[in-house]
Amino acid sequence: SWSIFEERILYQLLVFLQPPPRHSFRLELYGGTHLPERCSNIRVVLECTCLRKIGNSPCFLHPSKNNQTAQQSPLLQTLCTGSYLDVEEIACWVQNSVQTAWEHLPQWQHWQLTVLPSSHSCRVLLSGPSEIQLCAALVFAVEQGFP
């Protein structure tokens, strides 16, 4: 969605998170009655890949003959607290990625990117040569079920 407020154009973008290969997301319900309202109820489940070949990727759950310890999931190490997605970690990671990527775009010389503080989304403000500012909020979501 988008709206105009004074000298700002506000964009709100819904970003659906997809699990990487060898992972799946499971929404945990409160007593089976309603959906969770926060990301802390989205469990990351490691999938066994022993019976199917996915490139040269080892199974996270079971050790191989060459490596007798189970592999660590980068997703669990980076964006999770325990086995659950951590929306604050996701927001911080996306904010850092946007800031780093901005410097590689040709527009960065004409527009200033400011990452606005937010612990549950990625909010950025773009100020350019005109008086109009662009504000974008990336809100994270997970689809229930399988696409």
From TrEMBL:
Name of this protein: IPIL1 protein
Organism listed in the record: Dasyornis broadbenti
